[in-house]
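Table 4 source record.
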Amino acid sequence: MTTSFVRNQRFLLLLGTLCSFGAVHFTPAQSSSSLGGQLYLGLTITGAVGTVYSIEYATEVGQTNPSDWRCLGFLQQPASPYLWTDKSAPATGHRFYRAVAFSAPTNMVFVPAGAFRMGSPTNEPGRAPK
């Protein structure tokens, strides 16, 4: 038992010496991590597939004036029911949502966001210079 005690003392002395010269650096085996989550507000829309809706919100439920509602965008109903979430604002404030059927004029069609790119290639016949 005395021999192991002396060995342990020598090991601790050596370890202390190495640490004082900066030869040994202790780091935690695992860095601390955190898990975060965010809730988003949304609504379930039911209706005919293909119908275009204007998704609007207001900050007060009693607002009946159409100008009190702000449009977040347009949605062409992909399925019914469809869960739409507002990723523009976390669920920390008060927002009230509605989906209003949007009827475009008969000489226009609905083009989903990202489906159309304006412009023409530089080598297109009849293209006018800038």
